[in-house]
Design a protein that fits this description.
168 residues; mainly alpha; Arc Repressor Mutant, subunit A; 2 domains; 6 helices; FF_domain_sf; FF domain-containing protein
Length: 168
């Protein structure tokens, strides 16, 4: 009796391992083919029909598994894209900080002028420059320029207050 129970457990374990291998193969197939989050099963079924990993999944479970895995892959891709964009912002921010320390924003009166000067400088040849989309670049440069202008204004106001205090 004990031997039968062990054999039954072994058979169940083998079935679970086979199912996991089948699902992993199906997942790999979808990754290789580049299935997106909102792609339909009906569109991809004929393209994957010739692959043994696709046929290994029972017909009744294919669509459900396809939709489930497509959703997972899409959300994973979104996370990867978000991380890539965040890293691009960080790298570009470093570039702008370097440019700011080099005095590229000194004596500039408008954000457009700041962006144009940065774009014309050697900083635009840096690979960190291409880490962001042009619209994001401009937005970040404008934000840094506005911060710089606020600092200039507050320094000028403080200098004016200090001067008045000296006169009185």
């Amino acid at each position: 009796a004990e031997r039968k129970a062990l054999q039954k457990e072994r058979v169940e374990l083998q079935a679970l391992m086979k199912a996991k291998t089948t699902i992993d193969g199906f997942r790999e197939l979808m990754e290789e083919k580049g299935v997106g989050r909102f792609d339909s099963y009906e569109t991809w079924c004929p393209r994957m029909l010739g692959d043994a990993r696709f046929k290994a999944v029972p017909l009744a479970d294919r669509k459900k598994l396809f939709l489930q895995e497509a959703k997972k892959q899409g959300s994973g891709q979104q996370r990867a894209d978000a991380v890539k964009k965040r890293q691009g912002f960080e790298r570009f921010s470093e570039l702008v900080s370097t440019a700011q320390m080099n005095g590229i924003f000194d004596e500039i009166q408008s954000s457009e002028e700041a962006f144009a000067k940065l774009e014309a400088s050697e900083h635009s040849k840096d690979e960190r420059w291409r880490a962001l989309m042009p619209s994001d670049r401009k937005r970040l440069v404008v934000a840094v320029f506005l911060d710089e202008m606020r600092k200039r204004i507050s320094e000028a106001e403080q200098a004016s207050r200090d001067f008045r205090a000296l006169l009185l």
